[in-house]
Write a structure and sequence with these properties.
By secondary structure, the chain is of the alpha/beta class. It folds into 2 domains: 191 residues, Glycosidases (TIM Barrel, Alpha-Beta Barrel), CATH 3.20.20; 54 residues, Roll (Chitinase A, domain 3). Helices cover 30% and strands 29% of the residues. It contains 8 helices and 14 strands.
Length: 257
């Protein structure tokens, strides 16, 4: 029987006090690569020690010295007692970002720190753990994870659990819908009282409805049961870790842990 999947909770500074009592390893969403390859940090407690640095690329303009940035990152992690770096990169990989990934791969491995990077950086950082999103709007999550587990050692993969809530106009040729906030989804469910189904391929809940103004809709969303199923699926394939974002799942953690 596969061992239970280990969970990491990424937390913004404002939610730190609520998240700490849960007892999970924390990733601190307080850092980003700013213009000119500067390491920017939000306000965090001076006494904060331990956990992982979560590094976003929001606002990165492609300029600056990536080597100097990596030195800043290592100094900050050492000063805070962090034992890992989770790169929450959303921009398309550029030569500079790939260089940052490659440098961090070597520097983290030298210190026996964990480094997490999006799947697109697999070649640039061969020692890093790869983040695989749980959110899909077509195909099969199980088949996608199986294919990745054949391409990479499963223990190198980490499931990034993205809580889905989207409203699709049908047909949806681009495979993307309008994101729904928790409140919007709750109001829609309360107003429509729809029959809700589970998609085994997408590993998420869904319902459909008709609008006089916009026609047919397909709403895809996650609840605690679908998120547990995604984690169980990853575990069954030998994936040992999952990452949850506290702002996305704070209302479900009691049912997930």
């Amino acid at each position: 029987m596969a061992a239970p999947i280990k969970l990491i909770l990424t937390v913004p500074p404002a939610e730190l006090r609520r998240a700490q009592p849960l007892g999970l390893p924390l990733g601190h969403m307080a850092y980003r690569v700013g213009p000119g390859c500067q390491l920017l940090r939000s306000d965090i407690p001076l006494q904060l020690r331990g956990g992982l640095m979560v590094l976003a690329d929001t606002g990165f303009d492609g300029s600056g010295d990536p080597d100097a940035l990596c030195r800043q990152i290592i100094r900050e992690c050492s000063a805070r007692g962090f034992d890992g770096i989770l790169c929450d990169f959303e921009l398309p990989p550029t030569p500079t970002l790939r260089r940052i990934a490659a440098q961090l791969d070597e520097l983290a491995a030298r210190r026996s720190w964990r480094l997490y990077l999006p799947l697109d950086y697999a070649q640039a950082a061969p020692k890093a753990r790869l983040l695989v999103s749980s959110a899909i709007s077509g195909g099969s999550l199980e088949l996608r994870l199986q294919e990745l587990a054949r391409r990479f050692p499963p223990q190198r993969l980490t499931l990034a659990v993205d809580r889905v809530a989207e409203d699709f106009f049908l047909p949806a040729p681009r495979g993307s819908g309008r994101p729904l906030s928790r409140d919007e989804l709750d109001r829609l469910l309360e107003r429509l009282q729809p029959s809700v189904f589970f998609s085994h391929d997408l590993c998420a809940q869904y319902f459909t409805y008709m609008s006089r103004d916009t026609g047919a809709h397909f709403v895809l969303f996650d609840n605690a049961a679908s998120l547990r199923r995604k984690l169980e699926l990853a575990r069954s394939l030998g994936i040992r870790e999952g990452v949850l974002a506290y702002p996305q799942v704070s209302d479900l953690l009691g049912q997930l842990l």
